[in-house]
Amino acid sequence: MGKLLRIWIKRAKxxxxxxxxxxxxxxxxxxxxxxxxxxxxxxxxxSSARWAAIMAELGADLDPGARRANLYVSGLDLEESRERILxxxxxxxxxxxxxxxxxxxxxxxxxxxxALRAHWGGGAYAExxxxxxxxxxxxxxxx
Length: 143
Description:
The strands form two sheets. Strands 1-6-5-9-8-7-11 form a seven-stranded mixed barrel. The protein has a single domain (2-142), classed as PK beta-barrel domain-like (M1 Pyruvate Kinase, Domain 3, Beta Barrel). Helix content is 15%, strand content 38%. The longest helix has 11 residues, at 48-58. The model has no long low-confidence stretch (mean pLDDT 95). It has helices spanning 48-58, 104-108, 112-116, and strands spanning 2-10, 17-20, 22-26, 30-31, 43-47, 71-74, 85-88, 91-98, 124-128, 132-135, 139-142. The protein is mainly beta.
């Protein structure tokens, strides 16, 4: 079992990621107020353990917000989790695939894009199955 450590909402495509203590998940859409709505990539999720390992590998201490994911979680291994269901608070998310790192990662830290490519280091993306409120500190686990 893991925990939701941080939430970020992207207000516009390529725009800043705003931190939030709570957010609303909308079934079939994603995070309320997030620039990405609908489609397959409704919510992006980053593992704190994977991020820490990458930072150690690069000898860096970059804030995980630089990855531009929506949810930062502890206690879960996201690698090869395609089609698995996550339960976050009272909501469910279906992991649909790996979030591939883009060239913007190297703008944040040279070498980060390549480092994120191994073991689903860039995280996972998911669709929202059940609407509801989520908050930093909520438990998250495989259903």
